[in-house]
Request: fold
Amino acid sequence: MRALLTGGAGFVGSHLSEALLDRGDQVQVLDDLSTGSIDNIQHLKGRDGFEYVIDTVMNERLTAELIDRADVVFHLAAAVGVKLIVEAPVRTIETNVHGTEVVLKHASKKGKLVVVFSTSEVYGKSMAIPFGEDADLVIGPTSKHRWAYACSKAIDEFLALAYWKEKKLPVIVARLFNTVGPRQTGQYGMVIPNFVRQALAGAPITVFGDGEQRRAFGYVGDVVGALVKLVDEPKCVGEVFNIGNTEEISILDLARRIKTLTGSASDIVLVPYDEAYEEGFEDMPRRVPDLTKISRVVGYAPTVGLDEILNLVITHMREAMTPQGV
Reply:
């Protein structure tokens, strides 16, 4: 098939591009490199069926043209990372909501399948663990900019499902839970690459808050495998799916695990949220997906555990931090 990936030069997009090419699909990437990187897709240049355009999804004429050529659109383009969300809430809302609006509008004209990427953040402060796709969303107050991302992605979901209901545009909503692996950077607050970089450099490993917040990390290879299965299964159209892993760990224990695996002498330092982000910052205490639905529909089950994920990230980052010729 011919796939268009908006935001395809990002972490997940680059891995998805690779997986699609490996199975013989054609891939067109559209990315403005605001959070993605050309380095992520450098190794794909020259491969049969791969093309990329450096531009924004807000360029409606170009986006419409690229959608017209595609069979399926993977809409990944978004403002991502807690740090960016807190520092640039206007950009977060405008990028996430208007960008999705542009994609859905033009896909609807030709009836093209769209996979809209959402996030576990939409569950907000809910404590109904594990999170099921039909569970209530518990979002914090509008005065806390931290929740702007969750709300903007929830609007994306509402809009996508409205296009399916009203205009019969085939859509699939994918809620990703803490996807990690090689090529992810800590530039916008992603915890594992930040911890690994700090540990390898012998710098303090900075844990925000009290470190008791718990997360479940999914391997990017498992996630992109699930995405391919979703677009191949007609029953997935008009549905929302969690994708991730259920192996839960506290962030403080994660820091300890990375320190051990890297053999680092780094100290682990607790940094209050007010210093890390902004005064009054709120976080989600736990974030674990219920994978029953995606398992039932496409047979998805994560295959890569946390220690293997961490070792892959550590190896990749060691190589990236080693000067050439050494």
